[in-house]
Amino acid sequence: MDIEKKKWEVLCSEEKLEDISKEVGAKISEDYKDKNLLVISILKGALFFTAELTKHITPVTKIDFMMTSSYGDGEINIGKVKVIKDIDYDLDGYDVLIVDDILDTGITMEFLVDHLKKKNPTSIKTCVMFNKQERRAADISADYIGMEIEDKFLVGYGLDFKDRYRNIPYVFCVLDEDR
């Protein structure tokens, strides 16, 4: 697919993304007010969402990062997840919140939860900006969801196509028609 030649449609403006982050951040703040929260952001896609979301989480929190790979060089999830960068913290005593850009097939999130459970956190919950339920292949759901979406290919605000377009400050979907 050459998205340069396809029509795009804005799904979420900068303002809507900020509003969603505020709303989700308020829920997380309430749920974690008396807990030892550690946010684990999944790079590279969740970087923008994590940065905006954590501005709206009121308990002081630590943030760590993981990087996994399952997509290769395009939009097809190859189904095998590997850790490129693991966390730096010992999770003992932390209530972990995994933050990712999108929950699609669920394969990566299922892997992350299983991987991090082995590190003995007090608890693990998950948070995603976008939930794409209809493509779910793993038996997993997110605890906090910014927005439910249909099966569309999304780009921007951390979501990429061939490692480009992440820095676009809004999210657009690529339409299946030429410009």
Automatic annotation (TrEMBL):
Record pathway: Purine metabolism; IMP biosynthesis via salvage pathway; IMP from hypoxanthine: step 1/1; Purine metabolism; GMP biosynthesis via salvage pathway; GMP from guanine: step 1/1
The protein's required cofactors: Mg(2+)
Catalytic activity as recorded in UniProt: GMP + diphosphate = guanine + 5-phospho-alpha-D-ribose 1-diphosphate; IMP + diphosphate = hypoxanthine + 5-phospho-alpha-D-ribose 1-diphosphate
Subcellular location(s) of the protein: Cytoplasm
Keyword Iron set for record: no
Annotated ranges, domain Phosphoribosyltransferase: 15-161
Subcellular location, principal: cytoplasm
GO terms for MF: guanine phosphoribosyltransferase activity; hypoxanthine phosphoribosyltransferase activity; magnesium ion binding; nucleotide binding
SUPFAM superfamilies linked to this entry: PRTase-like (SSF53271)
Keywords: Cytoplasm, Glycosyltransferase, Magnesium, Metal-binding, Nucleotide-binding, Purine salvage, Transferase
GO cellular component: cytosol
Pfam family, one: Pribosyltran
Lineage: superkingdom: Bacteria
InterPro entries listed in its UniProt record: HGPRT, Hxn_phspho_trans, PRTase-like, PRTase_dom
Similarity comment: family membership: Belongs to the purine/pyrimidine phosphoribosyltransferase family.
Cited function: Purine salvage pathway enzyme that catalyzes the transfer of the ribosyl-5-phosphate group from 5-phospho-alpha-D-ribose 1-diphosphate (PRPP) to the N9 position of the 6-oxopurines hypoxanthine and guanine to form the corresponding ribonucleotides IMP (inosine 5'-monophosphate) and GMP (guanosine 5'-monophosphate), with the release of PPi.
Matches recorded under NCBIfam families: HGPRTase
The protein's name in its UniProt record: Hypoxanthine phosphoribosyltransferase
Taxonomic classification: Bacteria, Bacillati, Bacillota, Tissierellia, Tissierellales
